[in-house]
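User: My advisor, Dr. K., asked me to get a structural model of this assembly before our group meeting. I'm new to this, so sorry if the format is off. These are the inputs:
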Amino acid sequence: MTDKRPYHHGDLRRALLAAAAEAIAESGPAALSLRDLARRAGVSHAAPAHHFGDKAGLLTALAIEGFNRLADALDASRERTGSLLESGVAYVRFAAENRAHFEVMFQPSLYDQDDPEVAVARQRAGAALSAGVSTLDEPPAAEDAREAELAAWSIVHGFATLWLAGAFPDPLGDDAGDAARPVIRRLFD
Amino acid sequence: MTDKRPYHHGDLRRALLAAAAEAIAESGPAALSLRDLARRAGVSHAAPAHHFGDKAGLLTALAIEGFNRLADALDASRERTGSLLESGVAYVRFAAENRAHFEVMFQPSLYDQDDPEVAVARQRAGAALSAGVSTLDEPPAAEDAREAELAAWSIVHGFATLWLAGAFPDPLGDDAGDAARPVIRRLFD
DNA sequence: CGGGCAACTTGTCGCTGGCAAGTTAGAGTG
DNA sequence: CACTCTAACTTGCCAGCGACAAGTTGCCCG
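Assistant: The format is fine. Below is the predicted structure of the whole assembly, which you can bring to the meeting.
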């Protein structure tokens, strides 16, 4: 979050996060190695620990970045289209385009979920999601609103997860968002 | 799958799978250690490799077991209730009660997804899911059937994943299945 | 110009996964 | 009842990893 640039490397922290995202997208979070990241960035094996404390710290930073990016994507979609359907599409598209972040965000055993920055970023994303549901033509009654929100979240999250897992037996095209649209539409227009 | 029982330990293969499920449920798949499993089972550190080849082999076996258990659960629910809604509830309940299996099943980077036994078990589960959709009162037209299936799968899978991740901000009770029912009902009755 | 501190490096430890080579125990055969 | 064959392990080893401790480097500010 701080914008002062370090001296030695230039911006090791960001470089490590980017390298981590790339490595995770290739081989999954379990195969991530701090030493490999250090090698990719051309620094010593202990340099990552200085910025993130330990492996969980690095993944915590990735999760924070992910929740913030997701909130940004959802807000942008809502401002642009005002459509809950398109917000759902944006959710799925975010997952496809930020695979590593998404995988880490929803696997809390990998990072420190009690971190206050995580809580803030997660709430931002949650609020962006809730705001989307309120754009429905027929806003549901107060008590139903919660269930509608859970249903919307579940269907887009499920589609995104299954897409990333390669679980769909038939090919559904290249664009996860376009593939998701007719499916999400079955829940609401 | 072979039923002849080994001699030395009794049934080390099953014991290791059970211990692995327990360990993963506690700390996630990334923290799994073959040597720790061996210690829990009271055997040498190389014993697991004999049964499963390597770590991926063990997780492959876990995934196979998981897909088969899921297929069984879905079939049982359909035979008992004939209701797609209750099949969805059964899906969520399976995830909650077999957390370790479920997490591994849908994280293909952890195991060998090209394994033929995995493919068979996965297809069994897929067929059980499809069969559930056909129990709808108004079976959708052929071309819509695929989308209806994806929507049903997505909403239950998403709910299950979010539940396991502890992503729901408010507490929804102890039983994942009961919590999911009103949410799933929003997609179909 | 000099102290201070952030950004690293170097070195080390215990643990892990994976491989190779041995050992043991039961099952099948004559 | 020996004899052998083989599955089910064990022992020993190596490289890689995460975490920690103790140095070293280089910019910034007074």
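One thing worth pointing out at the meeting: The radius of gyration of chain A is 18 Å.

User: Perfect, thanks a lot.
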